Amino acid sequence: MKISIIVPVYNVEQYLAECLESLVSQDMSDYEIICIEDCSEDNSMSILKEYARKYSNIKIIRHTTNKGLSAARNSGIKAARGEYLQFVDSDDMLVKGACKKLYNNAKKSDADIVYFNMEFLNDTDKFLIRHEESNIDYVGQYTGRQLFCLYEKNNNHKTESVRQFIKREFVINNHLQFHEGIIHEDVLFYFLAAMKANTVIDINTSLYIYRQREDSIMWSQRDKTSGSLKVCIMNMCAYWLNDESFSDDENEIIGKYIKRIYDIYKQYEHYENEINECNMFGNRKEKIIQKIFLGKCDEVIYLSKDIIDKLRYNEKNIIYGAGKMATILYDYLHQNNVKIHNIVVTNKKRNHQTLAGIRVDEINELNENNDAIFIIGTDTKFQSEIEIELRNRGYKNIIKPSICQKRG
């Protein structure tokens, strides 16, 4: 199987047939179209069934509850069998010949990611707003970091996941997925994928038709923008802090990029005190991030690369805590491919029954040997007290994460 086209579907009966027509008419063979029906309340499912009867390469996955765009894409990734993945939103279209062009270019360079351009369709007036062709050609092969930095220097980021033709093996091996429960999930996925990609290319061609409509998720859920961007910023900072291999130039450029996303976040979040303008850049990433979070953003977790590697290969990792900091810690560890086996607290409360689907136990219920590693997921003011309690219980492997506290 050459390509898996992943199409999340939710309440798009007006546009779905046009989208599917653009996919089934691609001039190549050996590709699948995976449609994830996310509990639509309109006629979308009937349209999918009609097309699936006509085209054997269309497969339908139906969620039993509405989970959102990120979860739908993640379901598609799990089900995909193609060598490469192409995400398509169900109100958009692929240009004819897009799959063949993308696949041939990807195979020629053995690229982890192929970036490309989009056309923009005004849904109201039914005409192309803009045919995107950059006046900058990114000729040749790059690492993901190199091209990310070039994009930033030229103010030319290709953040949308629908314009990233991406190798499935690369996604699986790097545990890449879309952060569920937020909008603007592409911001985080784009950053992490670029940071991890060994070989990427850019083809300066518009191969995707993006429909701009006012009732889209991005428009209808704008109240979620600030919280979603906060999640993206915190996870980008956490990854950046944990990687010590960035050059001075890369650190400066990534700092500028995160600051730019933060400035967008500020537009949707009201502060009692405005952020102090200051020099955001330099080699001290911790100081950069502290300055970024002078406002009301929450804490950022940091663990060294050596500790992360140790946790990845440990058989029993336990988070102590089940509140806000534990949630941030779990998400940070998950993004760094660390598996958590247990979550424990001193006294379990009604609202602390599970965290990220893992049952929360009281420490008294735990019966672990000394090989278990505890990572304390609480505010720093409680860490020493919890460490003493764990040592009194005979546990020796205890980690207290560094936290960049909010300032101001």
From TrEMBL:
Residues 4-145 form the Glycosyltransferase 2-like domain. The keyword Transcription regulation does not apply. Transmembrane segments: none annotated. InterPro entries: Glyco_trans_2-like, Nucleotide-diphossugar_trans. The keyword Transferase applies. Keywords: Glycosyltransferase, Transferase. It holds the Pfam family Glycos_transf_2. SUPFAM superfamilies: Nucleotide-diphospho-sugar transferases (SSF53448). It comes from the Bacteria. Its EC number is 2.4.-.-. GO terms for molecular function: glycosyltransferase activity. This is Glycosyltransferase.
